[in-house]
Known about the structure:
Blueprint: H1 19-33, H2 42-56, H3 61-70, H4 74-84, H5 95-112, E1 118-124, H6 130-142, E2 148-155, H7 158-166, E3 168-170, H8 179-185, E4 186-188, E5 196-199, H9 201-204, E6 207-211, E7 224-229, H10 238-250, E8 252-260, E9 273-277, E10 280-283
Amino acid sequence: MNMQATTVERGTREFxxxxxxxxxxxxxxHEHSGIALSDAxxxxxxxxxxxxxxxxxxxxxxxYCALLTDTQDDTEFGxxxxxxxxxxxxxxxxxxxxxxxxxxxxxxxxxxxxxxxxLRIWSAGCxxxxxxxxxxxxxxxxxxxxxxxxxxxxxxxxxxxxxxxAAVYPLERVEGVTLERKRRWMMKxxxxxxGLVRMRDELRDMITFNKLNLMHDWPFKGPFDLILCRNVVxxxxxxTQRVLFERFANVINPRGYxxxxxxxxxxxxxxxxxxxxxxxxxxxx
Length: 285
């Protein structure tokens, strides 16, 4: 999950958007998703939500805030959160994590789980699916076929979860993937699907996609051997991060691994993990 700024000059705004409206939106975004919007994000929020006002034929953010307060339908609230969050991802993003996974984490887990021959992985903030499919490729290349492997892929944004589950991508989205992996794990479309690729069923069968709000109750208890939560918590305040990482620690197997984004850290946030390097952590012994 990522967010980028959109500049909108106040004098040219189509809709009235007061500081009070922005404070209210900040409050409900934080309460619902854990995302802490800074004052610098006011123009971004205006730009992202304006289309929701047009959809409803509204003329002011005051009316839209009232809708969010009064509605009994989760549909608009879902559209609201989807509009606020933007997903930036790619196959094998921060590739050093996948190299570490293949070279160190998976061999250690294969030894630790040699009796059960079971592996559980969580992509927490999976966006449009490039991360969990990248994980699945690495796992399939490293583990024997008779292992019981399941990857849970979740995101707050329901629209990107649907796209991820479809497993279809434009060719330009896979340009950074090696030719060998493209040939092994992807199928080119023809006819009306020309210019698209589809992930092979061997990868799709490993992954379960679900919408999930990390701030709410989790409908599972784990345990997981690997959790990737990359470029998500940079939008959370420290108190929210502390709660989240405590929960992560409670659902990771002893000596399991946690991967964060390149600009994220557990320093002064959690003592439950040891840093192995390059935002790779392991549950403390």
